[in-house]
Amino acid sequence: MNGSTLQTFAAECAQELPGAQLEHPFGPGWEVFKVRGKVFMLMTEVPGRPVVIIKAEPGEAHALREHNSHITPGYHMNKKHWITLEGGAGVEKKLVKELVTDSYLLVVARLPKAEQPVDPHTYGTSTRAAR
């Protein structure tokens, strides 16, 4: 999928997540998705290329970068904990949905239990177990 389609689909995935909100704290060129005030996904353009920036477990982020040319270290983010996803022929909807959901759950897991909109240990396990 191309970069614009990637961003549209990633935004649709994020908006389906409980408690997710879209904000523009850095101006109109940045779309920032948060849950309970904590960022789990950003979208912008990096010199003409639409990108999606999401949180990932450090080990998984490294493996994703090693095996996918469309995934690079997080643009303007901590390179250990964030990845940048660009559009391309090898980018499939299933991967995008999993990455967005995983990013959201990483953030939710760090929230105080009373503020968690879902249980991060059980949310979406039926869809993610097939990986």
Automatic annotation (TrEMBL):
UniProt-listed PANTHER family: CYTOPLASMIC PROTEIN, CYTOPLASMIC PROTEIN-RELATED
Membrane-spanning intervals of the chain: none
Gene3D superfamilies the record matches: 3.90.1150.30
Pfam families from the UniProt entry: YjbR (PF04237)
Name listed for the protein in its UniProt record: Cytoplasmic protein
SUPFAM superfamilies: YjbR-like
